[in-house]
Amino acid sequence: MNTILIKNGRVFDGTQTPSKIAHILVEEGKIKLISEQEIAAPEGTKIIDATGKWVLPGFIDNHTHYDGEVLVAPSLAESVRHGVTTVMLGGCSLSFVCSDVEDCCDMFTRVEAFPREILYPILKDEKTWSSPAEWVKHINSLALGPNIASFIGHSDLRIKVMGIDRSLDKKEKPTNKEISEMETYLEAALDEGFVGISMQHNPWDKMDGRHWSKLLPAVHARAKERNALTRIVRRRGAHLQGVPNLVSRVAALWYMTQSSAFFWRKKLKTSMVAMMDLKGDPYIRAVTSGITRFFNKVCRANFRMQVFPVPFRVLAEGMELVIFEEFPTGQIARHLARDLEKRNETLMDPQYRKKFKRHYRNKLAPKIWQKDFGDAYVLKSPDKSMIGKSFV
Asked: Under the phi-then-psi rule, with left for phi > 0, alpha for psi from -120 to 50, and beta for the rest, what region is 353?
């Protein structure tokens, strides 16, 4: 028998009870006993002295985009070494389950700043599946480091059922038959152990490749389609993950309402991206927290905000940064990323520059980026004297 005894560690058991110095007996990979009293170790037991250390359940990283990386580096060592034992894929409406290789690349690489020239060969070599069951079978064949859980992505479903062109056309609506097909794929995913569905409202997140700068398919979905899918998730006790419109933010209320238990309807487990303490909008955290508490207490919702655990800085290479999408002239510059001659011409145009300055200085517009070039510093430059300087 494979037995491990962890002794003298400060144990946090994950149930919000106070920590304690205790011993843990593990048999065949499962916890057999946690005790503050000495545990007699069977012969051959591996003993780990955890004196002075914390012992706690592995972390669950509920927002990763390892969908491509897991195929070629399934150990996911960068997560495991930080104590993460479960990672969740398929967020933000993006999964590599049903759609073909090129469509998967086009919807993923610009949104997640993942080089297309790296992802496309990976998927071309590895992707042999087109259904939830086949995806699960492939994942289970890998030498995984952490446990893997996944959402099925709404954009993935739309592309599979409607085709890439129709799924990206805001004037197109799925037929009743197509909605039924999406429901069938969602039911199949839940049958295979997927945790739920991920949806998307954010106009920042755009396509790469053949449909450059078009909004993701899930953004175009209307209430009838979304409600048909969330009804299944609610009935099955599964999970809705979503991204609101980060500019207007009104769509956040849709997710909160979906989570609520109105009248006869049971609550829906819902998480949304993301609670942020923003320099550019210092009040949004308090406002969002208050609204969340209202929905959870008064409307009996089961709504949670995803959060960033630590403050962080953003690395930008020029204007190749998604936050430029939050104002119109920034969107234009981002759209022209594949035509640098045209972009440079546009950036030097006096009328464009006038509009850019107006958008940049608009203090009333909702924003994620504080638009303060004095808070941005040069990290790399052909002119070494510029390194470390701000833009003011």
From this structure: alpha
Rounded distance between C-alpha atoms, residue 373 and residue 70, angstroms: 37
> Using CA atoms, how far apart are residues 81 and 385, in angstroms rounded to an integer?
37
Q: Global pTM?
A: 0.90
The terminus-to-terminus CA distance of the chain in angstroms comes to 66
Domains of the chain and CATH, by start: 3-56 (2.30.40.10), 60-243 (3.20.20.140), 322-386 (no CATH)
Q: Is the peptide bond before 274 cis (omega within 30 degrees of 0)?
A: yes
pLDDT tens by residue, 264-311: 899 999 999 988 888 878 888 899 999 999 999 999 999 999 988 888
Query: Could you tell me whether strands 46-49 and 3-11 are parallel, antiparallel, or unpaired per DSSP bridges?
Result: parallel
